[in-house]
Amino acid sequence: MRIKIFTILLTISCLLTITKQTVEAGTAVEKKAAEKRIAKLKIVKLKKESDTASAKFSVAEKKWIVATQKVEQLQLKKHEVKLAKSQANLFLKNADKLLKEKQKALTALTTLMKKREKAIQGKNRQRDKLIQSMTNVQTRITKGKKQLSKLQKDERKTKVAHKTALLQLTKTKVKSQRVTIEAKAKLAKTNLAKIRKAILKYQVGLVKLNQQYKRSIASKNKLNAAIKTIASRLAETTTKSKKANANIKAIIAKVAASKTTIANSPKQLSQFDVQIHAAKLVAERLHQTVVPLRKIATVKLLTYEKTMLASGKMVSFADKIAPIFLKRCIICHSNKKTEGDFNMQTFAGILKGGESGIAIDYETPEFSALLTMIEDGSMPKDANPLPKAEIALIKKWLITGAQPGATTNLQASLIKIVPTRKHPFPPKTYRASLPVTALAFNPTGTVLASSGYHEVLLWNPISGALQQRINGIGQRVHDIAFSPDGRYLAIAATTPGEIGEVKLYDGKSGKHLANLLVTEDTITTIAFRPDGRQLAAAGADRMVHLIDIASKKEILTIEGHSHEITDVVFSPDGLLLATACLDKTARIFHAKTGELMKSFNNHNTPVHSLAFSTDGKQILSGAEDRQLRIWNVSDGKEARVIRGAGTYITQIVTTPDDMVFSANKNRKILQYKFSSGKLVRRYQYHNDYIYSLAVNYSENMIASGSHDGMIKVWSSETGKQLQTIKAVPVPINKKRSSIKRKPTTKK
């Protein structure tokens, strides 16, 4: 009985346990389902809030844009009034002189017209006389012809009489009669001779008269042609005179209009000032509304994107997709090379599409040309297809909306929106020496910075001790520059085929301050403006990028070369920028506007280095033609040439004491007197060709870096070698070391 009761109780207990577990399981499932519903509702809510905030921001932004455009339009109209006033003043200033010139021209034209009218009258009189003379000749010809006809009749009669007499003479035998007949025959013969002589005379006279008449016709034709020419010129002069009159009237009218413009401009400018002030107040109020709405919309959108990304319902373009495009697509679809007229340099370019049409189809994203060409392997062209995982990621990005991201600038280059590159740490030491591609002294001469592998090495130039290692940079360092006050250190480095960067560090502590510039190409050269406020950077993208140090932003881009830029320097006053290039030219640009000022095209080989004279009036260029060319900045003409380098020049530095230092590929550094071109000293203790050169004028030191990884430090006063440094890092005393095992890059 007890056993049965125990069994029943055990069964009931099991049933209760099973029931409890079942209830709990059901509760867990319901809980998960509820959580999913809540998450879905949360996403819907976030999407709605994001859309609402974006719509409010969009409306407010449109109003602000309209208000801003109104301000700009009013300012433009005000500028037009100012310009009109300025032009009116300028016109009035020159109006009297211009009017006198026009009146003088009109007088000259009037005189010329009268002269030509007189010429026509004279020619007409000559023609009338000639016509009268021709008429007289014609009359004489007519009379001569009549007289000739009469003489010819007389000739015929006399001829008949002579023949008759001769016939009678043959028939008459009476002597007395024969004498009479012979006398008649002789008289007829004599008369016939006289008549023939007269006929000949008249014939000759008629020929002369005909010739005279023909000459008269020719003269008449010439006179007619001359009259026609003079008449044509007179017509032209008359037209010019009418135009001159019209111009004078127009000038007089313009003078009146200019005076009216000048008189009315103060009132108009005052009205525009009032309107602009009112429009600015409206625009400012709207902007004050836009700023918080933009922040709210951005926060809402970022929250929504973050939630969607976390739930796997969205793919980040900047983090996931842009790096793929940069690595696999940009080489054939960029600003430099745009195959198929498809530029993927920016998100806006991707949206635009190419010659085959749009790349992204938002209605049927799975059939977008961007995806289908990647899936079928036709893109990337002549390269390995993308991995399946990357194709799947791009497909998911397209299907989930192909959004650029809440904070993405659609016009920005992809390289500028991807996450900041994290570079690998440099090795503790190097297995072999690396070429020293860049050197720079700090202003006090206590630090010499040299290029390394993913780092810059800071040395004591006197003791040769390694003081600091700055890491977190690209594989190859191409240039280093300290600001004139030593506050900043700028480094240009590149990871070949991937990224070019300019980074800014504290000149004393080595702390990373900012990423100043990112490009898809190598950055070969950088230079601080003499006042340290700006930095110029240039390289394989054939452009000069001007960066404001205070704001850490690019403020100007200068284009003007057809090949890689090898050097960039500021003039001593900071107003000009000079560039050297592999396109065999050197050029000078205005540092504020980017306008091309001068171009030096006489180089027959690539140009590698430039340096201004201390007064900024001349500039030196060093190229592969083994010569230092000196140019006048004012007219762009070549002033003179310094020869004797022996091989092509890699770098030039000038100093305030009229010295020029040039590094050459033949392992020498040559020091010249700038003003005379005279060789002062040779420094020739390198075992390999020289890549880099740095000069510290205040401490009379120069440093050179060669292909074999050696750095030489010299005295520029004596030419004596002060130190030899093998540019290979060795362990640093912990107290002096500032190397950190954490990249110094910041996003």
Question: How would you describe what is shown here?
Answer:
It comes from hydrothermal vent metagenome. This is High-affnity carbon uptake protein Hat/HatR. Residues 316-402 form the Cytochrome c domain. Keywords: Heme, Iron, Metal-binding, Repeat, WD repeat. InterPro entries: Cyt_c-like_dom, Cyt_c-like_dom_sf, Cyt_c_Planctomycete-type, WD40, WD40/YVTN_repeat-like_dom_sf, WD40_repeat_CS, WD40_repeat_dom_sf, WD40_rpt. This protein has 747 residues and is an alpha+beta fold. The protein folds into 4 domains: 2-290, no CATH class; 317-416; 435-520 and 687-731, 7 Propeller (Methylamine Dehydrogenase, Chain H); 560-684, YVTN repeat-like/Quinoprotein amine dehydrogenase (Methylamine Dehydrogenase, Chain H, 7 Propeller). The chain is built from 6 helices and 27 strands. The chain has helices at 2-171, 175-310, 317-328, 347-352, 369-375, 388-399; strands at residues 439-441, 448-451, 453-459, 466-482, 488-495, 499-506, 512-519, 523-528, 534-539, 543-548, 553-559, 565-570, 576-581, 586-590, 596-600, 607-612, 618-623, 627-632, 638-643, 649-655, 659-664, 669-673, 679-683, 690-696, 701-706, 710-715, 721-726. The strands form 6 sheets. It has a 7-stranded antiparallel β-sheet with strand order 1-2-3-4-5-6-7, with no helix packed on it. The chain has a 4-stranded antiparallel β-sheet with strand order 8-9-10-11, with no helix packed on it. A hairpin with a 3-residue loop joins strand 20 (649-655) and strand 21. Helix 1 (2-171) runs antiparallel to helix 2 (175-310) and helix 3 (317-328) packs across helix 6 (388-399). The radius of gyration is 50 Å and the shape is elongated. The two termini are 80 Å apart. Residues 733-747 have low confidence and may be disordered.
